[in-house]
From TrEMBL:
It is found in: Secreted. Its main location: secreted. Gene3D superfamilies: Zn peptidases. This is M14 family zinc carboxypeptidase. It holds the Pfam family Peptidase_M14. It comes from the Bacteria. Residues 1-26 form the signal peptide. Its cofactor is Zn(2+). InterPro entries: Peptidase_M14 (IPR000834), TAT_signal (IPR006311). Belongs to the peptidase M14 family. Residues 47-343 form the Peptidase M14 domain. Keywords: Carboxypeptidase, Glycoprotein, Hydrolase, Protease, Secreted, Signal, Virulence. One of its GO terms (molecular function) is carboxypeptidase activity.
């Protein structure tokens, strides 16, 4: 069995190779909540993975994986782009890992592609994950929004795809719901970005990472789901705390029933012509919020995704997730939003 030391070492080994790349041409102010994007500052997105990059990287990873990674298409976006996903591993526990459901939340795509490449490697922890898990990776849930650099989809409607698992107005939502039903993931993780300048409540410390263990009220979950969510959350927080990479806070308490992960946990809805999933297979579904563009290093942003994600994958694979200590969850601080560079 891989213990906590190896779990953290695996995440660190993956993170160690990530190089920071500057996204800003100006030198932002280093004030509380900073560095910050300035009104006259040019922010280049050239180093951020676009849809064509995802196509190329998935093809490369699959070709060089010697059959370990398979790439599929869930359907087509509103503009006709393939909704690509990859699977790696043959284990009985299915783990759903998605990124960039909001098109302008940039760095999660590159992070999950790095994780996918690592999972196809000869690393001992990667081999264990492949043996125990089947990981379904969605690098770019919202390719049309990503290409337009907007939060929502584009056509036929401009819709927040993370609010569309009740009405299913977008083809992306229908396609991914069907993929969820077919793959039946027990665990799910969603990677997001948040506003540029939150600080940990009661301090002047920049909050770079927020943990979202509840997209719905715990009363809407089973006891097993709420426990699993907190276990996934604390495995994530402990991994980041070990490396001292971020000041961590709770995501604000929300209860949004039409979000993707909310409906994975609750079931009960379906696109037109389909039968709702009444007994959901999903036992845990959480999300990360990482500080968005405004830090100097792309690599740092991506590490804030890769390190906790690898920690949760490893804990799920080695069996430690089911007994993970959640006693510290209630003491995690919240954050407050500040004007970037403000006091």
């Amino acid at each position: 069995m891989i213990g906590r030391r190896t779990l953290l070492g695996t995440a660190g080994a993956l993170a160690a190779g990530l190089a920071g790349v500057s996204t800003a041409s100006a030198d932002p102010a280093h004030l509380p909540g900073g560095p910050c994007i300035q009104p006259d500052q040019n922010v280049s997105l050239a180093s951020v993975a676009g849809y064509d990059d995802v196509v190329r990287q998935l093809d490369r990873i699959a070709r060089t994986s010697h059959g370990l990674v398979n790439v599929g298409t869930a359907g087509l976006s509103g503009e006709g782009r393939k909704l690509l996903y990859a699977t790696v591993g043959t284990g009985p526990t299915v783990f759903w890992l998605q990124a960039r459901i909001h098109g302008n939340e940039l760095h999660s795509t590159e992070a999950v592609l790095q994780i996918l490449g690592h999972l196809a490697s000869g690393n001992p922890a990667a081999r264990l994950i492949r043996e125990k898990l089947t990981v379904v990776v969605l690098p770019m849930y919202n390719p049309d929004g990503a290409e337009a650099n907007i939060r929502q989809s584009t056509i036929p409607t401009r819709t927040d795809l993370n609010r569309d698992w009740e009405n299913f107005v977008q083809p992306e939502s229908v396609a991914y719901w069907k993929l969820w039903r077919r793959t039946a993931p027990q665990l799910s993780l969603d990677l997001h970005h948040m506003g540029q300048a939150p600080v940990v409540a009661g301090t002047n410390d920049l909050n770079q990472f927020q943990i979202g263990a509840r997209s719905i009220a715990p009363s809407r979950m089973t006891a097993e789901q709420w426990l699993t969510n907190r276990q996934m959350a604390m495995a994530s927080v402990d991994a980041l705390d070990h490396y001292g990479l971020a000041n961590v806070a709770h995501y604000p308490l929300i209860d949004i029933t039409n979000a993707v992960f909310s409906r994975m946990l609750m079931g009960g809805t379906a696109p037109a012509g389909e039968q709702p999933v009444l007994h959901t297979p999903t036992k845990g579904a959480i999300f990360y919020e990482v500080r968005s563009v405004g830090q100097k290093s792309n690599g740092q942003l991506e590490r804030l995704f890769t390190i906790p994600t690898m920690a949760v994958l490893t804990a799920a694979a080695d069996g430690s997730l089911g007994s993970y200590d959640v006693s510290g969850y209630g003491s995690l601080p919240f954050a407050v939003q500040e004007q970037c560079g403000g006091s």
